[in-house]
Specification:
The complex is a heterodimer of chains A (191) and B (427). With 191 residues, chain A is α+β, with helices and mostly antiparallel strands. Chain A has a domain of 110 residues: OmpA-like domain (60s Ribosomal Protein L30, Chain: A, 2-Layer Sandwich), CATH 3.30.1330. Chain A has three helices and five strands; from the N terminus they run E-E-H-E-H-E-H-E. In chain A, strands 2-5-3-4 form a four-stranded mixed beta sheet. In chain A, helix 2 links the parallel strand 3 and strand 4. In chain A, helix 1 packs across helix 2. The radius of gyration of chain A is 20 Å and the shape is globular. With 427 residues, chain B is mainly beta. Chain B has four helices and 31 strands. The chains are: A alpha+beta (191), B mainly beta (427). At the A-B interface, strand 1, helix 2 and strand 4 of A face helix 1, strand 9, strand 10 and strand 23 of B. Strand 1 of chain A pairs antiparallel with strand 10 of chain B, so a sheet runs across the interface. Chain B: Its main location: periplasm. Chain B: Belongs to the TolB family. Chain B: The Tol-Pal system is composed of five core proteins: the inner membrane proteins TolA, TolQ and TolR, the periplasmic protein TolB and the outer membrane protein Pal. They form a network linking the inner and outer membranes and the peptidoglycan layer.
Chain lengths: 191, 427
């Protein structure tokens, strides 16, 4: 599945000034929101896991591996490239040992394919304050990025964006959901 | 007469066209024991067509919701006078009422004249009375202004009923999320969407004059800070650096924005001068520095940092300089918000499993936890400093709640959205 560049969908409400003289500025707001482009291919809403726990291969909601469109190795469950989510402990941005081989496999692929770029999306669970979680998500993504750079991946191949707790993978409000949400997703950018 | 004009002008400036109603219900979960008994007698209606808003009902609901008043229900009222001469004060004294409000709404060719009088029941004397002109669309706001006038007269504190709140809601449809930045009246009515996106929206912050809102949008799949003018919908992007662009906070004079950027590595606090378009780095630490908030006098900025290992609050002069740690109790203190008088700050206080709202006295540094939820966040002071609005969650239902500074008075605001968060009370 290809992650296409998507058309943005932001609509600002059309706001209408109702009859009022210039110096008595009327703040009346009329809701004119239009929801723009649909068809967003949103990597963050994919389903997680094939049932083998947090280190398992993962498929998205349509039963596809998230980066399957990049090459056949990304949908081979025996290939670490099929795993593209790195999970973290509470309030931590340290990469756990289980994920070192996964990151190494992606690093090797990127070194071998210098034209390929990825976005590393940092995420957190819902606990604590939102902007702090944005910072924590970025630290997680940077931890993964620095491991990749050590292995020779070029800066220009890596982009980081942190969504904090704003784009949960699991929508529950318990530990089971939280551990799925403390993560970095490796999203390959379509050529 | 000039005072009257001022009231009318305020009402014009903050008027909204109604778009949706009854999106929110309010439960007062706790009230104060000293609540003052007051009767808001249903206002008499005069005129050909009906009145689109039950003005006295709105006033009754405002006063009751504040927790400072205990209102008398209509069925218990001995009479429904609409003129001073018609009031039998003894009947209301017998019901233990301290105060009563009467009024009339007079329709004239689609315009309305709303008049009300407030009486001291024991003295049998009028305390105040006003007549206000209002269009149909302004009637709710006129009612909130009446509530503000009564509240201030009887409590000595400014009313906050005609204020507004900004907040973020989310909904999901299949794999797609829709995030909205909305503004409603303080009672949840007249909700308006001012921005919406399939990507997250965050951190709404009112400008000190209440005319603009700064917020974070991920609409381009990366973070940027925008300032949107409410009256026109015009929007300016003020920060779009690589990495984090977050946590906007207005200086009290409205000329600067404190914000968080990670363009040079770790997240640090910067000051963006909106007039000169210049950017100054305020903190420089390899740990996380974020969530700046200005003191009301503009002299200092409180922010969250994990430089000591866990997130705690720190304070620094807004000119830069020494950064001093403010919080020491609890292993998680974040997202500070100053009270309007600058004497206290509200924060998110975590003890390991629960995150609650706490208030710190800036003079004594004493910290008082005032809520009892499991994931309470985003505290925002009412403009009169009497209440703190915050986001909470019970099970899968997110809601907004308001709590008095001592934690003794609590009101839960239930919107139709289960994903509602980051409330910000207008100045």
């Amino acid at each position: 599945m290809k992650l296409n560049k998507t058309v943005l969908a932001l609509a600002i409400s059309a706001v209408i000034l109702t009859a009022c003289s210039e110096d008595e500025k009327d703040a009346s707001l009329i809701d004119g929101t239009q929801n723009a482009a649909s068809g967003i291919n949103d990597a963050s809403t994919r389903g997680l896991n094939n049932g083998s726990g947090l280190s398992g291969s993962e498929m998205n909601a349509s039963g596809m591996y998230p980066n399957a469109g990049i090459g056949p190795e990304f949908s081979d469950p025996n290939n670490p490239l099929s795993k593209s989510t790195i999970y973290f402990m509470l309030d931590s941005s340290q990469v756990q040992n289980d994920f070192v081989p996964v990151i190494a496999a992606h690093a090797q692929y990127l070194v071998a394919h210098p034209g390929q770029r990825i976005v590393m999306e940092g995420h957190g669970d819902e606990r604590g304050s939102r902007e702090y979680n944005i910072a924590l998500g970025e630290q997680r993504a940077k931890s993964v990025a620095s491991m990749m750079k050590v292995q020779g991946v070029a800066d220009g191949q890596l982009e980081i964006v942190s969504y904090g707790e704003e784009k949960p993978a699991a929508f529950g409000h318990d530990e089971a959901a939280w551990e799925l949400n403390r993560r970095v997703e490796l999203v390959y950018q379509g050529k | 007469m000039s005072f009257f004009r001022k009231i009318l002008l305020i009402s014009l400036v903050s008027f909204y066209a109604p778009s949706s109603y009854a999106e929110m219900t309010i439960e007062i979960t706790e009230g104060i024991e000293s609540a003052l008994p007051i009767s808001v007698v249903p206002f008499a209606m005069q005129g050909a067509s009906g009145v689109p808003v039950d003005v006295s009902f709105v006033v009754d609901a405002d006063l009751g919701r504040s927790g400072y008043f205990k209102t008398l229900d209509k069925q218990s009222m001995p009479a429904r006078p609409s003129t001073a001469e018609a009031i039998q004060f003894k009947d209301w004294q017998a019901l233990g009422q301290n105060y009563m409000v009467i009024g009339q709404v007079i329709e004239d060719h689609g315009q309305y004249n709303v008049q009300f009088q407030l009486f001291d029941v024991y003295k049998g004397q009028q305390i105040m009375g006003y007549r206000m002109a209002s269009s149909a669309g302004e009637l709710r706001r006129t009612a909130h202004h009446i509530s503000d006038l009564i509240f201030e007269k009887l409590t000595g504190k400014k009313g906050v009923f005609s204020g507004r709140i900004a907040y973020i809601t989310s909904s999901r449809q299949g794999r797609q999320s829709n995030h909205k930045l909305q503004i409603s009246d303080a009672d949840g009515f007249n909700a308006q969407t001012i921005a919406s996106s399939v990507e997250p929206l965050m951190s709404p912050a009112w400008s000190p004059d209440g005319r603009k809102i700064a917020y974070v949008s991920f609409e381009k799949k990366s973070a940027a800070i925008y300032i949107q003018t409410l009256a026109t919908g015009e929007r300016v992007r003020v920060a779009e650096f690589p990495g984090i662009n977050g946590a906007p906070s207005w200086s009290p004079d409205g000329g600067k924005l404190a914000l968080t950027l990670s363009k040079d590595g770790s997240p640090d606090i910067y000051i963006l001068n909106l007039v000169a378009r210049s950017l100054t780095k305020l903190t420089n630490n390899s740990a996380i520095d974020t969530e700046p908030t200005w003191s009301p006098d503009g002299s200092s900025i409180v922010f969250t940092s994990d430089r000591g290992g866990k997130p705690q609050l720190y304070i620094v002069s807004s000119q830069g300089g020494d950064e001093k740690r403010l919080t020491f109790s609890g292993n998680y203190n974040a997202r500070a918000s100053f009270s309007p008088d600058g004497r206290s700050i509200a924060m998110v206080h975590g003890n390991g499993s629960d995150y609650r709202i706490a208030v710190m006295d800036m003079a004594t540094k004493a910290v008082n936890v005032i809520t009892d939820g499991r994931s309470d966040e985003s505290p925002s002071f009412a403009p009169n400093g009497s209440m703190i609005l915050y986001a909470s969650r019970k099970g899968n239902a997110g809601y907004l709640s308001a709590v008095s500074l001592d934690g003794k008075m609590q009101q839960k605001l239930v919107f139709d959205s289960n994903e509602i968060r980051e409330p910000a009370w207008s100045p």
